[in-house]
Design brief:
The structure holds two protein chains of two kinds.
Chain A (H helix, E strand, L loop, with lengths): L7 H19 L3 H21 L23 H31 L13
Helix pairs in contact in A: 1-2, 2-3
Chain B lengths: L1 H14 L3 H29 L2 E4 L20 E4 L1 H24 L6 H20 L3 H19 L6 H32 L4 H7 L4 H17 L8 H8 L4 H23 L8 H22 L4 H25 L4 H40 L15 H15 L5 H16 L1 H25 L16 H19 L1 H17 L1 H9 L4
Antiparallel strand pairs in B: 1-2
Helix pairs in contact in B: 1-2, 1-4, 2-3, 3-4, 3-10, 3-13, 3-17, 3-18, 4-5, 4-10, 5-6, 5-10, 6-8, 6-9, 7-19, 8-10, 9-12, 10-12, 10-13, 11-12, 11-16, 12-13, 12-15, 12-16, 13-14, 13-15, 13-17, 13-18, 14-16, 14-17, 15-16, 15-17
């Protein structure tokens, strides 16, 4: 574990968020857009869990705990809540894409637009 | 708070008992909720800030015994929160009554009322919360419920598209808010807004968090340049829900104010943030109204107006934010600007809701929203035409309607800050009036179209819903001083004096 720098989770999170933004902004396929949002939520959740890490810490469970510092538990609670909410949001978005496909036969965001101006 | 959630989950059960029962149940529950909100409003204004902590032994106890830092989730209701709560409740009441008849004959109605209650619960939670993560949760609740409501009419393809855009924007914005919350938590180990405000030092990471929060919340409230979802979503949402989604955008604006004023309040030592808000406001005003003028779809035009009026509010509050560290300027025109901006929120929600309801009334009877196809409706739809006139005059700022009062406050105070902005604001007002007059002529007056000769007036419940708002508009217009003194000024004070917000939670901690 010593060869991985401590910053690594944050770099990974930044990479995920960056790629997710690129996807959301520039890809036209609606399914790819939803995958981009899923990636964005993964990046943010990773960031939140990573910020709770204390060097050499143990899992924040009180039963049979080895001596030493514990990793922060509040970010883990926040992340759980966020994962659940994002699952609901993704489910809703996928349902809407299914409906859009039924109506317009296409999931390219340029070809299936009806509202303009 | 428990009541709307309870209602949301039991409405599908009650639906089994029949349609009338469900309607009466929703009305009764909502009447109860409005009553409770009214009691809370009076209480907050007479007693002061109310704090309610979840899971504590006494409801007022924000600091657990022996701790110096509030670790529990709490609701903290001050005058500004109460202001937004009143707005949301009133609009939802009118929308609920309006929807009673509008949704007749549609399937899945139980889900509609459930979603409305959920959206209401989300917005109230967002208005009352004292905790940043709770803000995120309620923001997501409101977004999901709002998007599902917007896409309710799944038989129309553009409805789903509007809902999809709304949920995409809301999801991205909420995730950015979560990212900012993560940054703030990593710095200070506390999540409640009051405690963050207490411990806040203005480090570069905090500035990043502030930037993220402002960006995300501007995305959610349809300020230019992140406004692309608003016309689509407002246009396709069914009648009663457009005002509620509108209110959701303004609750996000409230969250923006709560974050900038209360959390960062005393530490913004440049006028940069204020100018950012002002510029977003001016752009919104201008772009919104320019795009609105040449629309042929009546609801889309009103949606663009909603964007532009949001710009007014941002302008007023941005001026106050820019001068918040300068006591002389603050006393002379900062407070007035803020009063105008905040008063404009309540005015705008009312008259925009009324206008959307009239547009949907037309759609209900005719089946099209295209103004080129309408004509001569005033002969048959007298009430709708009357409400439209009230709404259009109010939005342009003509006395004696309420738009005049708030716009006058904004004009006067912005004039002292920078005359150019005030001129732009007045110009936008003129163009607003022009576009509404154009639609009025094409839709309501003129020779009746042959296809629509037999159109009747809209049903009673819709009229009642619209008249609640119309009466309030006229009332606010005739007694603006009363309204400003009782609900707007305390809201302004609550935002500017963030110390009182902090002290209500931190207690005796210095």
């Amino acid at each position: 574990m010593e060869s991985i720098p401590l910053n690594f989770p944050f770099l990974a999170s930044a990479l995920l968020v960056g790629v997710a933004f690129y996807i959301i902004l520039f890809k036209r396929n609606l399914i790819k857009l939803i995958m981009g949002i899923a990636m964005l939520s993964s990046g943010v959740n990773l960031f939140i869990v990573a910020l709770g890490y204390r060097a050499g810490g143990n899992a924040p469970i009180y039963t049979d705990v080895p001596p030493g510092p514990m990793v922060l538990s509040v970010p883990q609670a926040l992340t759980l809540t966020s994962i659940v909410i994002n699952v609901a949001v993704l489910a809703l978005m996928l349902t809407m894409v299914v409906h859009i496909y039924r109506h317009t036969g296409d999931i390219d965001s340029e070809k299936s637009r009806k509202l303009k101006g | 708070m428990a009541l709307p959630l309870f209602a949301a989950f039991t409405i599908p059960l009650i639906n089994r008992a029949g349609e009338k029962t469900r309607n009466i149940f929703s009305l009764v529950i909502f009447g109860l909720i409005s009553f409770l909100v009214a009691i809370l409003a009076v209480n907050v204004h007479s007693v002061g800030i109310r704090v309610y902590t979840f899971g504590a032994t006494a409801a007022q106890m924000a600091l657990p015994q022996g701790y110096m830092v509030p670790v529990r989730i709490m609701f903290e209701v001050d005058a500004m929160s109460m202001f937004m709560g009143i707005i949301v409740t009133t609009v939802t009441l009118a929308a609920l009554i309006y929807s009673l008849h509008f949704m007749k004959g549609r399937t899945g109605q139980a889900r509609f009322y459930s979603l409305m209650m959920l959206l209401y619960a989300g917005m109230m939670g967002l208005a009352f919360t004292g905790d940043m993560f709770n803000l995120f949760v309620f923001l997501e609740i409101a977004s999901i419920a709002g998007a599902a409501l917007a896409a309710y009419r799944t038989n129309m393809a553009d409805a789903i598209e509007g809902g999809f855009k709304y949920i995409v924007i809301s999801a991205v914005s909420a995730l950015l808010v979560l990212f900012a919350i993560g940054i703030l938590y990593a710095q200070y180990d506390v999540l409640s807004i009051a405690a963050l405000a207490h411990f806040m030092q203005y480090t570069p990471l905090d500035m990043i968090a502030l930037g993220l929060l402002v960006g995300a919340l501007v995305m959610k409230l349809a300020g230019v340049p992140l406004h692309m979802w608003a016309p689509d979503t407002y246009t396709v949402a069914p009648a009663g829900t457009t005002p509620m989604i509108l209110a959701a955008s303004y609750i996000s604006m409230y969250a923006l104010y709560r974050v900038t004023f209360t959390m960062y309040g005393g530490l913004i030592n440049t006028t940069a943030i204020g100018w950012v808000v002002i510029i977003i406001g001016v752009l919104s005003m201008f772009v919104g109204v320019m795009m609105a003028v040449h629309q042929t779809d009546i609801k889309r035009m009103m949606a663009y107006h909603a964007i532009s009026q949001g710009g007014y509010m941002l302008l007023g509050v941005g001026v106050c934010l820019a001068v918040i560290t300068d006591p002389v300027a603050l006393a002379s025109y900062g407070r007035d600007a803020m009063n105008g901006g905040i008063f404009h929120i309540i005015n705008h929600v009312f008259y925009k809701a009324l206008l959307f309801m009239t547009a949907e009334a037309i759609f209900f009877r005719i089946g099209t929203r295209d103004t080129n196809k309408m004509g001569g409706l005033a002969r048959n739809m007298k009430w709708t035409a009357g409400f439209y006139i009230i709404g259009a005059l109010a939005i342009s700022g003509i006395p004696p309607f309420n738009g005049f009062a708030s716009k006058l406050l904004i004009y006067e105070s912005v004039l002292k800050f920078s005359p150019v902005l005030s001129v732009i604001a007045m110009f936008v007002s003129l163009v607003t009036l022009a576009s509404f007059a154009k639609v009025f002529y094409s839709a309501f007056t003129g020779p009746p179209m042959p296809a629509y000769k037999e159109i009747k007036e809209v049903p009673k419940s819709m009229i009642i819903g619209m008249s609640i708002l119309a009466v309030l508009i006229i009332f606010f217009g005739l007694f603006p001083g009363l309204i400003v003194n009782t609900i707007v000024a305390p809201a302004t004070n609550a935002l500017i004096n963030h110390a009182s917000y902090i002290n209500a939670v931190m207690g005796a901690v210095p």
